[in-house]
Amino acid sequence: MKFDAILDPDSSPHEVCELGLLAESYGLNAVWTSNYPSSRDPFINLCPLALASSRIRLGPLVVTPYEMHPYKIAKALASLNELCGGRANILTGGPTGVNATMGMDFSRMVGRTRECVEILKRANPDEALNYEGNIYQVRGYKPTWATDEPPFIYIGANKKQMTHMATGIADGLMLGDTTERRLGSSLRLIEDNLATHGRSRDDLAVSCLIAWHVKEDKKLSSSEAKRHLALRGMLDIWFLETFLDAEECKIVDANRANIFTAYKQKTDVIEGVPDAIVDKLVENLSMSGDYDDIDGHIETLKRYRDMGLDEVAFKLHEDQAAAISVIGERILPAFQSH
Question: Do 296 and 156 lie in a common domain?
């Protein structure tokens, strides 16, 4: 099993470089920059690390064809890939918070993503790309300088339609904030869809985003996890119903605005949601607690590995250097024999 680090969206290019090199020193597989409405450009933010590192993979997430034409994504990705000598990743997929910032709707999510990935994968230095899609067109794109190993392209997918499309064309698929029960059903769905496309399980790397809030101080961990609950799977009932009863799901659904307000105001006080429910959300949608809880998280990750998960992308928040060090010193050694 491989492990990645998704950096906080407020990380500067210098911080990304420093944290990326720390992750590389521990043997992490990849570092990702977060593409939020008010964050720095996720491609440019990786440039210092691309030049300074030698092994670790790196890429932006999530970059969607809603905010950038796939031709422009292809140029930016190929340029980053050249800087790092063929170690670039990208995660694309459906709409994000950037859509709201740009005043865009969420229409044709699967079709947009499919055409975007087809353009990214067909761009090459040897033959001009002429692509006539239902949504996007590219004519005469031939980056003769893009001769490094091609970037690795992930699609973010949790539900049936996006999963069916992703398993047919992506190099990797990243699940988001899943629960153990949903992970099992998602992996079965992925295998079934791969078979319909004539692909084997080895043809697709499957990753899963997991929020990492483990700290030396359990109270600080709990506070950070509560502040970021609004981001956990967008609190989709499809996830919540695996560990909350129907009445508890209704309470969460009725208080989405309060949960989002807590995130925006950076407070761990969530109005309208009982503490017992908040604690269940933290426990089931993230990895939290203090260092004594790490062995339990390792056992969870081993179950995920045995279920068929290939990679984990830990979403980091505050104290990122400490988080990378703990992951490098406690998590990675537990999986080195595999």
Answer: yes
**Helix boundaries (H) for the chain:** 13-26, 47-52, 70-83, 97-102, 109-122, 160-169, 180-196, 218-227, 237-240, 246-254, 256-265, 275-285, 294-307, 320-326
Q: Is the peptide bond before 273 cis (omega within 30 degrees of 0)?
A: no
Distant-in-sequence contacts of 292-298, Cβ < 8 A, 24+ apart: 293/214, 293/218, 294/214, 294/326, 294/330, 294/331, 297/214, 297/331, 298/330, 298/331, 298/334
- Single pTM value for the model: 0.96
Tokens for 179, please give them: 């629960």
Assess contact for 9 and 316: CB atoms under 8 A: no
On whether both 294 and 277 belong to a single domain, the answer is no
Domain co-membership, 79 together with 203: yes
Residue whose entry in the numeric block shows the structure tokens 């970021």: 228
CA nearest 43: which of 54, 58, 57? 58
Pairwise CA distance, residues 239 & 231, whole Å: 13
Residue pLDDT, tens place only, 255-286:
999 999 999 999 999 999 999 999 999 999 99
330 DSSP assignment: I
pLDDT at 161 over 90: yes
Token representation of residue 1: 């099993």
User: Could you tell me which of 273, 186, 260 has the C-alpha nearest to residue 229?
Assistant: 260
Bridge partners (DSSP) listed for residue 32:
6, 59
- Whether the per-residue pLDDT at 289 is higher than 90: the answer is yes
CA distance linking residue 102 with residue 213, whole number of Å: 31
> Domain span at residue 235?
219-285
Residues 160, 27, single domain; the answer is yes
What is the tally of structural domains in the chain? 2
Q: Which CATH number do you get for residue 100?
A: 3.20.20.30
The answer to whether the CB of 200 falls within 8 A of the CB of 194 is yes
Q: Please, which residues bridge with residue 33 across strands?
A: 60
